[in-house]
UniProtKB/TrEMBL annotation:
Main enzyme class: transferase
Matches recorded under InterPro entries: GHMP_kinase_C_dom (IPR013750), GHMP_kinase_C_sf (IPR036554), GHMP_kinase_N_dom (IPR006204), IspE (IPR004424), Ribosomal_Su5_D2-typ_SF (IPR020568), Ribsml_uS5_D2-typ_fold_subgr (IPR014721)
Protein name: 4-diphosphocytidyl-2-C-methyl-D-erythritol kinase
GO biological process: isopentenyl diphosphate biosynthetic process, methylerythritol 4-phosphate pathway; terpenoid biosynthetic process
Species of the source: Desulfoluna spongiiphila
Catalyses which reaction(s): 4-CDP-2-C-methyl-D-erythritol + ATP = 4-CDP-2-C-methyl-D-erythritol 2-phosphate + ADP + H(+)
GO MF annotation list: 4-(cytidine 5'-diphospho)-2-C-methyl-D-erythritol kinase activity; ATP binding
Origin superkingdom: Bacteria
Active site: K8, D133
Segments forming domain GHMP kinase C-terminal: 209-258
Leader peptide range in chain numbering: none
The entry's keywords: ATP-binding, Isoprene biosynthesis, Kinase, Nucleotide-binding, Transferase
Function: Catalyzes the phosphorylation of the position 2 hydroxy group of 4-diphosphocytidyl-2C-methyl-D-erythritol.
PANTHER family: 4-DIPHOSPHOCYTIDYL-2-C-METHYL-D-ERYTHRITOL KINASE, CHLOROPLASTIC (PTHR43527:SF2)
């Protein structure tokens, strides 16, 4: 079985408070994007094996996709196993949800392979045990995420955009980004949600904001360099996704995103010492998946 495992972006991310246990409350507009890892799942008599072509990605039980498979077999009461091969295009540690998407894709793939013993709601409950944003990828439709990111509300229509994504070559630690966050006045989730839902067709350009971008830029100046490059490339709006380090530009037309990519490829060739590690991706918002 061969499956596509999509990435995601946060079209806004407001940190609305900090809990006593150290976790932060969020209010975020999450949307899948058409940038995919490829996952192949094959049944096996016993045990779980995983391989990945991306350097540094673990191939044991520390990989979320491996843990997703183990969770599925335990919940289904099955003694079988599987072989998982991940052809990874979404960079790890990029704020694009690649690992979480892989885990959800494995859950969905195994569920299909073994006769669909679980509905989507059950898969989402399982996915939550693996991470706060893993349930998002079960349906991968635009949602307003609240709580620590685990509470989802499906949103009405969102205006489509094309994306040019820059991964600056090195990831960021989510824990370190939050550690450097200077939390100001607590924001009201109700006000954020009201403004969003009163818009009718939601235009992401009106809402682009990420409270985690300033601390991410402190840790990695490359985030700021990527922002400036996308602005130079003519993006209609620019934002860092999640806790970084990827930065994306929104374009109304695909030709604009393609022209931006061409310009940034030229920039990378002109200044290889500064931009050699950059990876560029063209994609689009996934309004359905």
């Amino acid at each position: 079985m061969e499956l596509k495992s999509p990435a995601k972006v946060n079209l806004f991310l407001h940190v609305t408070g900090r809990r006593e246990n150290g976790y932060h409350d969020l209010c975020s507009l999450m949307c899948g994007v058409g940038l995919y890892d490829r996952i192949v799942i094959e049944p096996a008599d016993t045990g779980i094996s995983l391989s990945c072509d991306y350097p540094g990605v673990p191939e044991d039980e520390t990989n979320l996709a491996w843990r997703a498979a183990a969770l599925f077999f335990e919940a289904a009461g099955l003694a079988g196993g599987c072989r998982i091969a991940i052809d990874k295009r979404i960079p790890p540690g990029a704020g694009l949800g690649g690992g979480s998407g892989n885990a959800a894709t494995v859950l969905k793939g195994l569920n299909s392979l073994y006769g669909r013993p679980f509905d989507e709601a059950s898969l989402e409950s399982m996915a939550l045990k693996l991470g706060a944003d893993v349930p998002f990828f079960i349906r991968c439709t635009p949602v307003l995420a609240t709580g620590v990111g685990e509470c989802f509300e499906v949103l009405p229509a969102i205006k489509p955009y094309h994306l040019l994504i820059i991964y600056p070559g090195t990831g960021l630690s989510t824990a370190e980004v939050y550690k450097n966050l200077k939390l100001g006045l607590t924001k009201s989730q109700k006000k954020i949600k009201s403004r969003l839902l009163n818009e009718g067709v939601i235009d992401p350009l009106h809402h682009l904001h990420n409270d985690l971008e300033p601390p991410a830029q402190m840790l990695s100046p490359a985030v700021g360099d990527a922002r400036k490059a996308l602005e130079l490339a003519g993006a209609d709006g620019v934002l860092m996704s999640g806790s970084g380090s990827s930065v994306f530009g929104l374009f109304r037309e695909p030709q604009g995103a393609q022209a931006g990519e061409t310009l940034l490829m030229c920039l990378r060739e002109e200044k290889p010492e500064q931009y050699a590690g950059w990876q560029l991706f063209l994609a689009e918002l996934l309004l359905t998946f």
